[in-house]
Each structure stands twice: as C-alpha cells, then as structure tokens.
Amino acid sequence: AKFVYDFTEGNKDLKDLLGGKGANLAEMTNLGLPVPPGFTITTEACKVYLDSGSEPAALRAEVSAHLDALEQKMGKKLGQADDPLLVSVRSGAKFSMPGMMDTVLNIGLSDASVSGLAAQAGDERFAWDSYRRLIQMFGKTVLGVDGELFEEALEEAKKAKGVRVDIDLDAADLKNLVAHFKDVVSKETGRDFPQEPREQMDLAVRAVFDSWNTDRAKLYRRQERIPGDLGTAVNVCSMVFGNLGPDSGTGVAFTRDPASGQQGVYGDYLQNAQGEDVVAGIRNTVPLADLENIDKASYDELMQIMETLETHYKDLCDIEFTIERGKLWMLQTRVGKRTAGAAFRIATQLVDQGLIDEAEALQRVNGAQLAQLMFPRFDLGAKSEMIGRGIAASPGAAVGKAVFDSYTAVKWSRSGEKVILIRRETNPDDLNGMIAAEGILTSRGGKTSHAAVVARGMGKTCVCGAEELEVDTKSRKMTTPDGTVIEEGDVVSIDGSSGKVYAGQVPVVPSPVVEYFEGRMHAGADDADELVKAVHRIMAYADRVRRLRVRANADNAEDAARARRFGAQGIGLCRTEHMFLGERREMVERLILADTETDREAALSQLLPLQKADFIELFESMDGLPVTVRLLDPPLHEFLPDITELSVRVALAEARKDANENDLRLLQAVHKLHEQNPMLGLRGVRLGLVIPGLFAMQVRAIAEAAAERKNAKGDPRAEIMIPLVGTVQELEIVREEAEGVIAEVEKAHGVNLKLTLGTMIELPRAALTAGQIAESADFFSFGTNDLTQTVWGFSRDDVEASFFTAYLEKGIFGVSPFETIDKDGVGSLVRNAAAAGRATRPDLKLGVCGEHGGDPESVHFFHEAGLDYVSCSPFRIPVARLEAGRAAA
Ligand code: PEP
Ligand code: MG
C-alpha cells in the first residue's frame, strides 16, 4: 500500500484514505489555489499503527521521500540552521472532530535553527515566540506534560515584566521563557526537548495517531455516531505565519452564513496571530468584512477563492486561511457545518442557482434537522428580563439552571435538572458538560469558537461571546453590566437564534415550521418566513419521489386530525387499550370479575357502544384513508388496581372487620392475573382466545362504526389487526370468529364493509413462520418494539434506564436498538418475514408501527426492505416523509 500522498496527488473524494482535511487540501491544490505545499499520511497507516502498536515498516522511507520532495520545492531543509523549513503536523479524520485531536505547529525549530528563522524573518521576537509555542504544544500534546505548567510560566513571565498581554513580551523575555519551558519538559518527562527536526516530526505524527483514541475523541465519536475504527490521517504542511506583524493574520470564513444560509461575507479575522488562536476563541476577533480595510488585495483574492470553492463544491464551504506579510494562504476548506434552518434554505438556494437538482437538495437536509426545526422557540411578546447578548451560535430556546463547570452540569442533569452550562470559553474537556446541558453560554469567542462549532454539531442551543457578561467560574457566578448577579442554580434562558440571554424562565412558543405543518402559516404568502418556504419546497420534493407511505400511530380523533394535517396517509396503529382507561376502567374491571356468562356479556355490551363511538370519530377524521385498529393488547392486570396497594387496603379493612366484598374479589382476581413476566404472558391474541367475547365485541364495534359511516356517505377503510401472534393457528381462530361477526353486521346494515384482517409481526416465531401466517393475514405490520424486546431478550421498559449507558459506553452499540432498528438482527427477521409473506401472498400489504417507523435511519432500512408504509407518532410524520423521500431520491 501507498501510505503517503503529496497534496498534488489526492482529491476530495479520497476522504476515507486522506481524511477530510487532507482530501480537501489536495483538491484546493489541484484547483490552483494557494495552499502551502505538503503531504498526507493515510488513515491506513494510522490503522496499522493502532492495531499493531507500531508504524507500518514502509512508512519511514515513504515519509523521507516526500519530505525530500517538499524540501526541494521549498528550497530549504527541515530545521536547517540558517533557514529552517518548518512544518505543521495536523490530524484530519474522515469526519471532522473539532478540537478533538492534536495539532503541532512550528516543527523543525530548535536551538540551532531559531536564530536562522530570526535572520530570515528579520524578526528576533517572532522566532523566539514560535519556538516557545512549539515547545508548549509539543510538550503538551506529544510529551503529555500538563499544559497548566506552561501557562503558569507564561503568566509569571508577564507578571515579572509587569505586562498584561503576550505581545508585550520581547525577544529576550521569550528567550528566557524558552529556557524555562525546556526545563519544564526535562523535569516532567525525564528527557530533553528533542532537538532533531525529523525526530520532532515523527513523534508528532505518532501523537496524532494516538489522539484518535483519547477519551474525549471516543466520547465525541459515540455522540456523533462516527465509527471507532476509521483512524485519522496526518497532514504535514509547510508553515506559513500569521504572526509576522500587522500585515499578517489568520482567519476563518464561510461562503455563506451558516446560521441562515444568507449569502454575504461571514467570518472572523485576527491580525498578527497564529493558527489556533481564532478557533480556540482565546482572543477577540474582528468581522471578516473589516479585512477589506486592513488588506484589500488579500480580501479580494479571498472573495474570489470563496466563489471558486462554492461553485466547485456546490455547497457552503468553510475555510481557514492565513495571511503572511500580505500573501494569502489557504490552510483548510470543507463543506461547512450549518444550522438546521440554514440547511433547508441553502439546499433550495442552490437549486435556484442551478448548482444542484431536487434529488441532491434532498440529500442536503435530513430528518434530524427537520425535527430540530420543530422545537418551540421563545415567546418574544412575553415579559422577559434580558441581561446580555452574545453571538447566535446554534439555534433553539434553552432554559435551565446556571452551572459553571462540566462536572456540575453532568451531576445536576443526572438528577433530572435542566442546566445551562456557562463558561468563559469551552475546550474539549467540557464535552461531557455540553452534552448534559440544555444549552451553552460563553462570554468569549466567535461563531467559530469551540463552543459554537461543537454545539452546532450536537444540535444544542448555544450563545457565545456574550462579552458584557462577566463569568467567574471560580466563585460560580456571572455578573451583568448593571450589577445583576446570576449565581449557580439561578434559572437563565438563552436564545441561540438571536443571541439573547435572559434572567429567569422565558415562555416558549411553537416553531414556525410546526405552524406551517398545522396549516396556520402558509408557504405561499408573500410575507412567509424564508425557512417555511424552504421547508415547503423540500417536503414537496420528498413527497414527489418517496415510495413509502407514511401513516400515524393515533388512537383519538384529535391526534388523527393533527396527523392528517402533518401529511399522514392513514392510521397504521390505533391502540384500543387507550380507549379502556379513565372511567371505562371500571367496566373492564367488571368484565374481568365476571363469573357468569351473563355478567360477562353485560360488561361487554356496556363497552360496545363506547368503542363504537370512538371508532366512528376516528373513521370520520381519517375518511377515505386506511385505519388499522389493533385489538386489545396489554395484559389485563394493567386495568386492575396495583397489587400492593389493594392488599394493604384489604388487610386494613379486614383488621377493622369491614372488608368490602368487591375489594376481596378484586384482590383475588389481581392475584390470579399476577404474572412474573407480564410482557410474555396473557396479552394480545392470547387474551382474545381466553376471554370469550372480548375480540368479538371489538370487531363488532369496528364493523358497526364502519357501517354507520358508510350509511352516512362516509368512506371508512378499517383494517383489523391482531397483536402478538406467534403461530398461524391463533390467527385462524380469531379470523373465523371475526368473519362471522362482520358478516352479521354487514347483513344487518345491508353494506359491504371490505374489512381486511391482518396481524402484527412482533414475535420471533411469527417472523420465522411468516410464510404460514400470511395464509391467514391480509397484511403484516411489524411491531418492532416487541420484536426488538423479544429478539434481544431486552425488557423494553427497563433496560434503557438500567444498563444501556454501560453498553453504549462500551461501544456494544452506538444507539439503542429500541431507537434505531438493529439491521443485522431484528432487521434481518423483518426482511425475511417480508419476503416469506409475499411469497405466500404477493399482494400482502407490509408496514411497520413500532417506534422505529419515525426514526430517520430506520425509515431508510424499511424503504430498502420493500415495506409499503411506516407508521409513527403524529409529530414525527414530517420527518418520516422527508426521510422516505431521501431514501428514494
Ligand atoms: C410494537 O410492539 O412495536 C408495537 C407497535 O406495539 P406496542 O408498542 O403497542 O406493543
Ligand atoms: Mg407490541
């Protein structure tokens, strides 16, 4: 294998091998853009190193060859005493992991070459500053020295000199600091700072490989669902300097606004600064537009390059650049992260610009983003106390108690508190706290600071750079300009869409996207929100191309109506047990307690009209669309009082000698029905087979409701569904009885109801014998909740709270199988059962009604498995429609 690629050899499609940064540096190089020369060590080399503990044997020679070529091109050798070539060594995985992994700049500097650099640059101070930065970064990331030790030494030097900022240290001070730093390294590591340039480079490369497996990188990958075995590439790039004086600087830019999609000049610039200063948000930057006044030629060239990049990548790009004494250099580009709203707007803007087509536009957005846009926002009309304003870094409305460190954020959120993490600035060590918090507020740093970038990636609300707020993490408080103090535990509200920060709890209102889906806001209106217009167009593309139909899980007319407004094409699951609660619980109790047929029939005939009325409403709200009604599923004890409570009540009454007859009978029934494993017990079809008349009553209610709707000139399309079937025999018995009841009703009302009768496939045995079951079923609906429970042997009600965190941490799975379908296990049963069912009955209708029906990744799976529809809760319908479209496009 070839382990090293020159920037001239790669291209943007080689991300697997060269990582995102390396692939795009190569792409820019080949576009003729000003990229400092360099080369990329592949992810394959990293994988060999991570697997075996040492670099591949061929790597050293390959690196040497590429280094030779680089030295030739630059006309100087790495670390050459009189004119040193310096390089940066940067990580770059396939997926961007901001701030997660290591970078070392100024490799090649040493005691021997520092004066050569000074002479070449004509700047003694610059050379010593570069050298101290090298020792500091190398010491920390490569040699593992505690970074605080360097920070302290730097602070001391400033204090000794009586100055506040680094810039005020002169060459002599920095020279002393270098000596001090070298002492720190020797003392802490038992070895001297390496003076040999190639050794510096090799160690830095290895450190980048190692950084793939730091705890924070692992945590980030789990969060972002990035596979753990990809490895990182390493980019070795000749250094350019943004810290050579006022005609130098470094910055970041977006080709359009990552928060709104608007075209324009977006970015931050920092004069006379190097590398990570901007991204780390350590010093405050100026808006990119100001660069025009600082250095017009570079600004114009940058604008030109941004246009080239956008047209070339056909997407928003973000960029890191450096200006060295008036010469512009491109250090990085990639298709940039953006907010959910911007994703929709950019996708439609690019269609309008003719850069992409509708199918491509669908790939530029996703269901998770749409879900995010459906979150509520702050009520701007409500009374609120604004205490400050920062940069709107990641949208959303977050309310929570103020905490000032990650540890507290995690601790409080574990005990159920909502928290806002407030920091001066964040760094990768804050990741846990950021995950735990509702939102993040910082007082320093721009749109590209660590907090902003990471929060956007996580879809968390973030306001950054709220400078007038004085954050004091030591004494855990924040002070506003007018002296208001927010202490730990005080409630604050932050608006990531406007950057506003409020004391106390601000009320929230629905999002415009929800208002649009509800039909209360029209995309066609002249003053329609740009976001709503974009969502409307993208949804139209999705609906046009999708093959999967989308239904709702709904069991009352209100949910059904909302589902319909959201685009549902029917009901895929009406859980009838929800119709047995409230005051009807007593009737169910009577049914369970009945000892004689007369009693039982009396109880059933009391329930019948109520059920029927429910179904009439439902069929009316879904007129013309299919409604799948599932017969009673849960174990009966769920309708009875709690066993402990009732036992205590009866025991107390007995002690008082006034035990009530009904309670005694109830208690008996509760004992009789008590099961160790109710989810595996008397429920679903088993109930229907054991309690005479129960399913017949439900079927009659459905049939009569349908008949009444028909006679009222409605178009009811009921489908009757039997739960928890394990074998075709169960289904045959129920079907025979149901067909009898339906025939009776049809005759009595003089109508043909065209009712279909199908089953849920939610037990492994049902999936395995689907070919037989299809003999007796008009349709299958996969109940992936129970199927996941029974295939894995995981109690769906318990495991997520008990040991899933441990499983997720150990990487056994990246996401709960109750959330995203387990394709290899549960999914393979679904695929096989679908095929076997269709082999028996080619017109068998197939759907899914487990929670997975509204999960983006699972929707793609069901599309590929050839199902006819997915069914999910009303609020997830737009997401399912979008993902079904994306799967088909
Ligand atoms: C299922 O098991 O996936 C299902 C939809 O039924 P319920 O969640 O009601 O058990
Ligand atoms: Mg189920």
From TrEMBL:
Cofactor(s) needed for function = Mg(2+)
User: Taking every annotated instance into account, which residue ranges of this chain make up the domain PEP-utilising enzyme C-terminal?
Assistant: 533-884
What keywords are annotated for this sequence in UniProt?
ATP-binding, Kinase, Magnesium, Metal-binding, Nucleotide-binding, Pyruvate, Transferase
- Cite the InterPro entries for this sequence: ATP_grasp_subdomain_1, PEP-util_enz_mobile_dom, PEP_util_AS, PEP_util_C, Phosphohistidine_dom_sf, PPDK_AMP/ATP-bd, Pyruvate_phosphate_dikinase, Pyrv/PenolPyrv_kinase-like_dom
Superkingdom to which the source organism belongs = Bacteria
Is Magnesium included in the keywords of this UniProt record?
yes
Entry EC number(s): 2.7.9.1
Q: Which reaction does it catalyse?
A: pyruvate + phosphate + ATP = phosphoenolpyruvate + AMP + diphosphate + H(+)
**Record domain PEP-utilising enzyme mobile: where:** 417-499
Protein family membership: Belongs to the PEP-utilizing enzyme family.
What name has this protein been given in UniProt? Pyruvate, phosphate dikinase
Query: From which source organism is this entry?
Result: Streptomyces kronopolitis
Taxonomy, top ranks, is: Bacteria, Bacillati, Actinomycetota, Actinomycetes, Kitasatosporales
